[in-house]
Structures are given as structure tokens and as C-alpha cells.
Amino acid sequence: xxxxxxxxxxxxxxxxxYDQLGIAAHIDKxxxxxxxxxxxxxxxxxxxxxxLFTAIGIAVNNDGKGLRELSYQSTxxxxxxxxxxxxxxxxxxxxxxxxxxMPFGWAALALLVLLLMTARIWRWPLPGPGVxxxxxxxxxxxxxxxxxxxGAGPIFTALHEAVFPAEHQWFFYYQDSLMTTLMKAPDIFxxxxxxxxxxxxxxxxxxxxxxxxxxxxxAADGDVARH
Length: 227
Hints:
The protein is mainly α. A hairpin with a 2-residue loop joins strand 1 and strand 2. It has a two-stranded antiparallel sheet with strand order 1-2. Helix 1 packs across helix 9 and helix 6 runs antiparallel to helix 9. It has one domain. Helices cover about 65% and strands about 5% of the residues. The C terminus is likely disordered.
């Protein structure tokens, strides 16, 4: 949850991925092919792309508010709504999913505080850096094996089918969606997912080390000093 919040503040690294994934060229190629009547998006500039992505990120973390009003400058005198009804519905589903998951994050944080207080009172030893690194390595290797064995595509599809309503569209061709064109989905989702995982691992290790230090009681420090 902490990693997600930090990524949100950093706009999920969109500015970085914009160059790495060649999103500008992707928009130039597929925006003119749009079959939903969304014209002129290929004439928009990078600043507008980043602003739209930022607005989408804010909306899905805020109950989906404002998604259906997002627009771009189609021509000098014309603004056009960015999302189709199906795209807006999907992003609203994403907002609902985030809302449902956030309480688990807050509950985990509360449990962490409770465990830390208990460890401090009872002077329970917390895992050291070696155990923390080993834990992260085991999780990373296990996930890598699962993804390699099943394939990223099938996992991506299965997860979407599991969490989103069956009657709602979640797969969009570039020619039918400026949303996926703007994001170069699903490439950017894999990139953000990797960044999310890496940041989570770094924070997990840092948090483990910090909590181990904070859990030391004054009495225990005194004992060490006397030795």
C-alpha cells in the first residue's frame, strides 16, 4: 500500500516510461486509426498526454470522479471527450477495486504497529537483514517461476476476469481506445508492476531494519552497552 501511494505521487513513472516505451510514436501510429470518432489526438503534445494520465491516476484513486469529463484539444477550437463509455466504466471498476483493497492495507499497517508494540513490550527479536533479504528473494523467485511457467499474458487475462464484472469490457484494441493508446497498455502495466514490486521490496527491507532497531528496548540497549 505504501509503495502504491508513493507511485501515485510520482505519477507511476509515466514521464520515464513515456520515453522508454516509445509512447509518442505509439500515439502517432494508432491515434489516427481510432474507430470511435475520437479524432485529432495525434496532434496533441506530450504535456497534454502526461496531464491526462495524471488526471486518470487521480480519478481512479478518488472513486472515479471526473473520468467522464476528461477531454483533449482535438483542434484549435474543439475539445473532445477522451474516454468512451466502456473505457470510463472500466476505470470506474478499477477505482472500486482500489477502494476495496485499501482497507486491507490500512489493516496491515495497524497490525504492524500492534506487533511492533508487542515485540517491544515482550522484547521479542525481530528478523535481521539476512532474513529480510532471504524473504524478498524467495517471494521474487517464486513469482518469477510462476510467471515464466504460465506466461504474463494468461496471468494478466485471468486476473482481469477474476476481479472485474463479466459484463464490463476491460480489453480494448488500440484502434478503439485512446486510453490504451495513451498508456500503451498493457506494456506500461507490466513496467509499473515491476517498479511496484521493486519499490515494495526496497521498502520491506528498509522497514524491517528500521523496526528491528525501534523494537530494541532501553533495557536491552543498556545490557549491550555494559558488555
